[in-house]
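Troubleshooting: if your tokenizer reports a length mismatch, compare your output against this known-good record of 417 residues.
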Amino acid sequence: MKALFPFIFSLFTLSSCMESQSQDVRNASNSELGVLNQATKQHYFVDGKTGLVVFQKEYPSDWDILSRPTYNLDNDFPTFLYLMQNNNGMKAFNTPIFQFVAFQNPQYAQMMRSYGVTNERPLISPTAFIESEVKPLMEREGFKFLSQREFPEITTYIEKQKQLLGLQNVDFITYSTEWVNDDHVKALVTFNQMILHYDPALTGGEAMKIWNYQIGYFFAPAGNYETDMRIAINADFNKIESPNWQKYQIQVNNFRQQEKNIQHQNRMRTQQAQFDQHQQIMNDRYAANDANHARFMDNLRGTNTANASSSNSNHNNFIDMIREEQNVDLNGKTFKVNAGADNYWMTSDGKYIASNNQFYDPNRDPLYDNQQWDLATKFVVIYFVLEVIIFNLVIFVNMPPPSKKPSTQLMPADPVN
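Known-good structure output:
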């Protein structure tokens, strides 16, 4: 699931980019939001790793602005935490982005948790989130809920950008609520949520969603609440993206695609090598079976050229059967190992690893680092008990019948001296 995060982040970045508009739309926003003409300054949001400006926003010159990049969604592309305040008592800040994966099937979700997925959480609606998490927090701070606040110009623009970019499987939700305390300080709490819907055909038939959220808080005295809030919103509408940062994003994404291609090619080569190794193992096994069968047939026909050692060999096989041992060959040397495994990996000094996994290779296992392991050839033995029984049976069948003797016969006795 981790590999999906950069892609999810790129979609979320598109959500942020929706805030920047053409000059005509910006001018319209200035008049609609009633921004007062006053001295301004630029605040630059800077990537902490490259020093590049990501984007910039314009604020009144008497506002104090702090920002800090975070990399909780992507190691290369930051999101930003901010803190704004002025002398009128306005204060605004946001939370980090929290990201989760949601599964429709509870049993599948439980299974994924058992596999180590720690950010599994069912999808929650904005109203449920405000009720369960925001409301208790605001009430502890002395605020009372007033109403939901809608911003049609933001909602309309987001929908247009979704259609323009063809993001049919992504939902962007902005849900704002207003609050007030006994000191006539008003608050705007905005819940921003992104939901990426996955096609079940891509996830093994399971309905899955990647979703995240971020909370923005804005506090101001009632007397300048609307003015300061609209200045902050207008700064978002007039955000200017850095061309140098956009070039850097393209370079990083191209590099990532090249790395994916290289990794894919390496995986294919590894799989081919494992397949070839498995085929060689099976060929060696078949060759050993054929050689053993040939020796067995030679014994039956009496054509074995190694009859002198056959008895000793059978005896050794019988002892090996009792001890559950067998012989393997490595570089012309024979070693005795515990029987029962499919593969035996050995070092030159006779140490070995028994494995039933055809694709296991201890040379890639960090537990056995700095050691050379070679695959030994296993002698496939047909136990000599069956061989002796069949051999004796053939001899018995081919024996000539016994000659008939008279029931009684008188023979002269030799004289006793």
